[in-house]
Amino acid sequence: MPLSLVDPSSEPEGVQAQLGGLGTRLEFLHDVLRAGEAARRTAVPNDPTGTAGRRAYEAHVRTVRELHIAQQGWARLVHGRLELVCNGDRSVAMGVMVGDAATGQASLFPRNARRRGSATEMVTRANAGERAPHVQTALFVADAGPVGVALSEEEAFALKTWFLLSYRTKTGDTVRIDCELSRPKRFEDGFVVEWGRRIPLPPLVMDGIEHLNDYGPGEIDIPVDFR
């Protein structure tokens, strides 16, 4: 398995400096996870299976957009069915992803918890600087959507996409969310198998959690075969 590149600094000051270079802040990312946890808690046992996870995902996407749009001047971006937010010069984009138990651990290699589709593969290839002429050009044209931005094909190839990776565990009444902001570099069979860069973040710990019926299906990333 390829080694993941991890910056050795795990102190908050070092983390803040790295995040600042990308145009974000630790407080923003923790607020995203906190909003997801709050949304998750609104699910009750009689809700449909997957409600808690869907609500958490929706809150993650909404909050990561709202904070960066309001505070950093970023813009809403829908890119190959990925729900993202991108910076003003359209060089960096950010999304959310559920990881496994290695998430946030600098000495371990995390993977996405659930198989993802061609949209994630597309941005991973762009992160690695790969051009894939056999991929439908339309997949590389981002949808502006309501109050969003659209990218040209060249901008889409140049875009570097990061994911706020999170892993939730519950012990008694305490929930711990391990997390990192990481940029995928290689993607195989629905999973990230190499990261170009990782920024492990301090975990978010919260108390007073009510029991919920399930963790849900995670993010929505519709598989679409390349043609």
Helix content: 25-40%
- The low-pLDDT segments are 1-10, 133-140, 211-217, 222-227
- Report, as a whole number of angstroms, the end-to-end distance: 28 Å
User: Helices and strands: which structural class?
Assistant: alpha+beta
- Bin the strand percentage: 25-35%
Q: Helical region count?
A: 5
Multimeric state:
single chain
What shape does the CA trace take?
globular
Largest beta sheet, briefly? 6 strands, mixed
Strand order of the largest sheet: 1-2-3-4-5-6
State mean pLDDT (0 to 100 scale).
85
| Strand runs, count | 6
The succession of helices and strands, N to C, reads HHHEEEHHEEE
Query: Mind telling me the C-alpha Rg?
Result: 17 Å
